[in-house]
């Protein structure tokens, strides 16, 4: 019999997913049957729910959707922080929470995974307060409710939450309804006059500017809308920049790219070009503290047109434009627009000076250049918050390279599972992760998942004796910035890897690192882990300055 | 200068804690200075926030209080599920969340660890919806607010939540206020006439009963009030039982103990005694699904007097008693009461039949008996949800042995960090943990903390190829009940243990297990890890039945 469970999974499949993330529990086991019993879907089976949510986030960034399944209360709340990150950074994840049988909830039974108070609705309410669209599925309107929540995710690029009671999951559904999928879940929208007007005003503003600059952001990227702006930028030879948040929204090897901007700490010539801009068109970027070096961007409101996921404004106001705004439509409308006359911009970016390795003890500055130099076209670089993000995000990346990080929500431990999610979504793009040992420990158990699925990313673990990024903000020598001394070279085996599945390097010097990176890149059929030792107070020079800036903002 | 930070930490110290749990972040770093800069407090420094919350819970169960420090948003939400468990099972944990500077929040800055929407109050609201007492500390009434929240924890035994902005933490406080600590945080309460009346009615009811039975629960235990009831029970020779939830609230070696009750699946003679009872006086127990074998207790409302943390009732109603109820006062009042005539009860419990080890492959039934046999007086047995809890909780434990589990909230991964918390709180009671490999992987990184603090518990890891307890409920052979194949024997070294800090056993047979347990018990100065292999479908016989019962309830 075709049931709500089957329907929900067919929806997920239709939207383009082959994987579902999560952890089983007795309130979702029967739903999981419908995943593992079909051969076009993989149940990933995470080590815990927070990691599952991070992994779903990494997957959704690549595919435009991801589904996460947890069990009531315990699994749901464990995944909270991951889902909150998806909300903060506009990543379309659907959280499906298996709930007790409706009858048992109605009877307010003292069942496990509750507060023993008969109140089952608290969990959904908590997520509503967080800012998620939520829905408790019931026997009534089940299909409509599922459709509504999934359409919301598609139309907004935001995560959403639903609870699925055991009995509701089993309700029969007429399978013919699947024939309407293409109309239900159509991502395309026809451009209304209103949204076209916005696009035209924008073009007009560019025509009137002397030094227009496009800024592309994470909202554009995570909603898979970047190709629209790429076309516009390339056709009109418009200069563009990105931020650490949403970096690589557009291919950074395009000749129109001026480098990644990060406020006052930006390198030349990027900084100078931004400073000179008399118009900044922001497509879905957020100017948050970490990616603007604590709000030190040179342009002010009067110079910005914001075309954002939720809203738009021209120089701080909507002006006279009132109507039904759609990010998608405006961006789509812009795609084919032509400027009055093509621009004649050219930029000469500083190439990353090739790092000549010596036998000197590694520094973060050398490390960053060496890692950037090692990245091949088409790969994905994932950088954890901390020295990795600060050190790597300023560099321009090769053709078609993707970059992933979480600089707004900035939850450490995120990068590792999210990298695995990305690798599962796109196994053609080898993922290279740079993380700190302080961060990796939060979510290290997902190594078991990586190995079970036999993935082959490259993982660099910076072992610098603790939370260096925190040291730079406060408490340079304080014991709370120390962490347990782990031996990452033993981890693959401890988490189940067979000898021929992985390769390990333990590096201390410049040449050891370069050598390890070379071998890692040429060994494409293994998981490669590089443990990198660095001094506990060493950091990318920009981060040292950022540390002071953050401290000032906190004081 | 003496500040709010100092005050808050002095309060924690006054209440009797030497340890604070949590993870640093830039919104709490300066607060942490005030912990690590004094030599009478230990900052535990967890691997992640969920584990920190679990560990604080384990600590609070032993000490009656624990403090947890996290950073805004990311750390806070990561710890949620742990705090929710404390709420569900009445464990007094104070969650202190470091927040951005008040001015930055007022300006709605797009700072890290937020949704980038300028809304900082969502997090507190989420916790309020969960059911916690919450407080956002501000420059006004800071000391009063702290006092109010801490008094609440003391008076209710429940967790609570407060946010501490960076600037508020630095506000000067007059240190002389510490002189009032003894009056502010006095746990003792004088018994009012109203509460004494309840106690007297209760005694009267016992006097009128032919077969009265006392049931002691987790609320009594976690609020450290069991000694009051122990006195009453012993003086009057009253029979008592406990449940898996709150097991060992009273010393199970008392002659009045009739064994642990678990509804229809209870062994004789315990079951018979409970079935015969014409009056059950419930002191702080909750009759939840798992600990009553799905609500199969033999006594009904008309036989029960509930003296619970939040409320009381006589046979389902308050009758004519209206007044200010205090669990503490009623329990204290009962302590010294005498029955009309002392009872002449005697019980003969079945001793655990000593397991005679063979070279046969281990079964869960043998395992449970062998583990129980190995436990020494004064030790603490911690059992994870799953086969461990189901197998071990029915047995009567030796003199002064404590038992810890989480059968209502039942979040797997809880047992390991909570065991470490208990061991830190009471290093005189060696902790013995029994957990499953499916559960342990959720929180395994806390091994680094265990090793850093050089603790010496015994840890048994049941490796039965996945989630056996789930298999018994649904999906016996389904792949979602498999887990990554980890090698726990490599874990101590991977997580930083030196060769002389630990001992490892990898056991497959009965005699190997008994041998390992003997050696573990006689090696008190090392951490001992025993990896125990069992068949994937093997389970304690009671759990097999429970699995069917749960399945029926779900269907
Ligand atoms: C979940 C969570 N907890 C705490 C923090 C606070 N925090 C930010 S960076 C950091 C330290 C990162 O250390 P590590 O990964 O070792 O990086 P590095 O030493 O290279 O800077 C911490 C604890 C956070 N961002 N997220
Ligand atoms: C946080 C959380 N996620 C999921 C569950 C659902 N669950 C309950 S028991 C269990 C399996 C436990 O397996 P294991 O520890 O290996 O125990 P055993 O095989 O001995 O039963 C799972 C996944 C839960 N209780 N808590």
TrEMBL record, chains A, B:
One of its GO terms (molecular function) is magnesium ion binding. Mg(2+) binds at residues 464, 466. Residues 406-532 form the Thiamine pyrophosphate enzyme TPP-binding domain. It comes from the Bacteria. GO terms for cellular component: cytosol. One of its GO terms (biological process) is aromatic amino acid family catabolic process to alcohol via Ehrlich pathway. Residues 3-108 form the Thiamine pyrophosphate enzyme N-terminal TPP-binding domain. Its cofactor is thiamine diphosphate; Mg(2+); a metal cation. Binds 1 Mg(2+) per subunit. Residues 200-318 form the Thiamine pyrophosphate enzyme central domain. Gene3D superfamilies: 3.40.50.970, TPP-binding domain. CDD domains: TPP_PDC_IPDC, TPP_PYR_PDC_IPDC_like. Keywords: Decarboxylase, Lyase, Magnesium, Metal-binding, Pyruvate, Thiamine pyrophosphate. SUPFAM superfamilies: DHS-like NAD/FAD-binding domain, Thiamin diphosphate-binding fold (THDP-binding). Belongs to the TPP enzyme family. PANTHER family: PYRUVATE DECARBOXYLASE, PYRUVATE DECARBOXYLASE ISOZYME 1-RELATED. Decarboxylates branched-chain and aromatic alpha-keto acids to aldehydes. This is Alpha-keto-acid decarboxylase. It comes from Apilactobacillus kunkeei.
